[in-house]
Amino acid sequence: xxxxPSPVSPIAPILAPELNPRPSPARAAITAGWIRDEATHVxxxxxxxxxxxxxxxxxxxxxxxxxxxxxxxxxxQGAVEAFMRQYDLxxxxxxxxxxxxxxxxxxxxxxxxxxxxxxxxxxANWKRHLGQSDSVLVNASTWGLMLTGKLxxxxxxxxxxxxxxFQRLVGRAGEPVIRLAVRQAxxxxxxxxxxxxxxxxxxxxxxxxxxAHYRYSFDMLGEGxxxxxxxxxxxxxxxQAIHAIGSTGPFADVFAAPSISVxxxxxxxxxxxxxxxxxxxxxxxGLLELAQLARSYGIGLTIDAEExxxxxxxLDLIFQVLADPSLQDWNGFGIVVQAYQKxxxxxxxxxxxxxxxxxxxxxxxxxxxxxxxxxxKRAQVEGQAGYPLFTRKQNTDVSYLANARRxxxxxxxxxxxxxxxxxxxxxxxxxxxxxxxxxxxxxxQKLHGMGDDLYAEVIxxxxxxxxxxxxxxxxxxxxxxxxxxxxxxxxxxNSSFVNRITDESISIDELIRDPVEAVSNFDPIPHPxxxxxxxxxxxxxxxxxxxxxxxLANDDQLRELAAAINNAGAGDWTAAALxxxxxxxxxxxxxxxxxxxxxVVGHWQPxxxxxxERALQNAVAAHAAWDATPAASRAAxxxxxxxxxxxxxxxxxxxxTKEAGxxxxxxxxxxxxxxxxxxxxxxxxxxxFAPMALPGPTGESNQLQxxxxxxxxxxxxxxxPLAIFLGQIAAALAAGNTVIAKPAEQTNLIGYxxxxxxxEAGIPKDVLQYLPGDGATVGAALTRDPRVCGVCFTxxxxxxxxxxxxxxxxDSGAIATLIAETGGQNAMIADSSSLPEQVVKDxxxxxxxxxxxxxxxxxxLLVQDDIADKVIHMLxxxxxxxxxxDPGLPSTDVGPVIDEDARGILAAHAARMKSEAKLxxxxxxxxxxxHGTYFAPTAWELASIAALHEEKFGPALHVVRWKAxxxxxxxxxxxxxxxxxxxxxxxxxxxxxxxxxxxxxxGNIYVNRNQIGAVVGVQPFGGQGLSGxxxxxGGPHYxxxxxxxxxxxxxxxAAGGNAxxxxxxx
Length: 1066
Fold this sequence. Notes:
By secondary structure, the protein is of the alpha/beta class.
């Protein structure tokens, strides 16, 4: 908000400058198929996967023979497969044990490691597993006692009470002994799953014994890079590995030669759709170098598949690199396709199309996919229209067979590679290939340490005579973990083939059942217990829709969004009082864009005192009729408003960006939260505002009724100018109050548009009125007026106290209700059992999303000293990757702060921190930020949280170290600030989490995730102490605070006798 600036700049477009060019039809089909209807898609795949009856019968016979042969070999089963079968995913001990072993490898201090052992190994049900397997690994892991390589022999008494014995053992031997033991078991596990700690060790093992029968693709273990330094380290590891693999040559046939598997997210810290231009430039150069190196040695290089939102980016990068003339005629560049993605057929078609254009043969590895659970959750959280993958395992099995046929049908364009441990899949693919002129130019693939027995029956010339390549991880046991957990989740489940193939209680026919036959009989085809994202809450007995979002990685949706968002009228937006009968006078004031103050995005007119008085008169007069309107009718209007708002998301996103400086992702979240508030409070009104019958003696009826209090004033903040604004209003209206809404002075345009939408939906104009203006003219006049029965306020603690005093100081009128949600000195606590990478990701998101301008934002990271150096180093590196700039561009991570006052407060704080704290990192401001109100995200290290006296509302993070024995003191220090809004906890020790939860006096606690983004009806939001009065917004206790209660008792015998009792009969 300002007076008219000069010169005035034209309104800069939102999103459009970074839209990707329209792709070719073959590439466009991939995006179009993102969330195809599952039933329709599966029916098409069933037709493609089906085999002629004679071929099908032959495939089933081969599969049955494979299973019989594997069962005959089961006495010599691999240790990992024994472990998988013994600890299926239904057994919490198996997964728990892996988590314990993995966590222990990462915990640097003994005390926390010992606490983890006590926490996890004290009360699991170990009895089920002892003695049930001959495998040394299973028994050793059950006991964690592979000390000096010898299994401890157990007395019979001990075997009868394993759990008690384990607890006694922990007490007697102590955690350090157990810690060593579990680590030893983990090493066995690592040896099974990891071919070597170094590439040289892996190459050496690959040539010994039975290993020599296989081809190899080496995978350098490691998760995605968080920093440029991480990415450079991984790039060098890949370089060295290619040199090492290549030096074992020469290789005449690139398809038979060893290869390396490359994970693109390990090679770039921001490998995501929004950073497309940067990724293609920076990662393109690195990937081209690796490809040229692999080509020079005649070995293969295959790009691993990752999450669905990275698919198109991966393909664009791959084909940019493949088109380089230096790779001409090289057929070693492979691509992985995930069969669980609905888009797999279109990806294969596109690869075949590009192979033809480039004159290459492209190796394609078909896998089922490893991120299924995370993808399902993500679609639900983001409110997508559907799922990008199949919701049933058997549907994925059908997809695998249909896409296997597609690979084979592609002829010379593709060299097919089938990664599977399923005998039925192997037999079916083998049969398909043999039916195509006896094709032999393909291979199977398996994971190292799994499927050895099965492939021993596939490779030999007198069996199926098909080569198999081992996907072989290389790295330290510490790096093994995320890979290992994914494999356990993938293959450890009861339904997994690996887990069932040697279980003699499962018939061979059941084990090798043709998925085409199984899925053909499904009704419904999608999983009945996995609802579409829109039905998420209905499936859990809450009768409202989940708000729908937008997929910012979907180029089709982005093009539609850009067209709509830039047609929303920026520059012509206006706001003024919406008060029937009022004629406000006064000049219109310009509203400028916080990202570029030269842009005038609209104008607003402040309300005058006469307009305030008229609004109060209207509100009082309208209350009785609105309160008498049935709650269901009021709810229906709010639900209609939610539908309108959801349909007009782009227009409101535009206002959030241009007036409030919000990024596109923040704008989507803002509109969704507002929609959720409207639907949730409508639902609450239906449930709570119907008269409630109460118990009593015969001859008497008792009823509790809720009604509106009267006139409610809603004073909302600028940081959530649509969501909190509409949330307050919706609650007050649903409860039967008339509402006078006063927006923050910085965001009048958004509030005006929101009130207009509610009027359009059916809220009478005298029931909901809009009063923009400054706090002195509008806010103070309203809060001291005796006609106001309640105030709902979100903002600073200081302003909440002023409102409270104004309400208390009135000499007449009702004793008013104040519902206040204020600020917080929010902390995140991380102990040494936490994953530093996850801590850094979550604290970055919690501290700097929305430029730190959230009530819930993390202001302090309290990190255990044992991991503090590592976390701080990673935090600095990750902050260097933040893009600060125009919030209307997808590539921007952090936008401006709201105005010059906000920036001034932050700048003064930064000046103070120069002398009182140690700078960790300061993000770079991007070009163009000089015209807006920007503050660079900054992190400092402090000696104590006590050095912070009040909340600094912006992208300012403070890091404090604590010793392992100081946990209670840390929580007490947080409590001592007086604030109690949000708290983040990162720990894998349940006892530690419970200890913090029970001691901390805060409203919202988030464990092992970020601490922002509370979802309406899921994480009701509000604090304690200096952080607010409660009850929590978006929770079941909020609406009644806006209501009065009336009890009606009727003596039903007053007319002469108790008819119901007298006519009771026998």
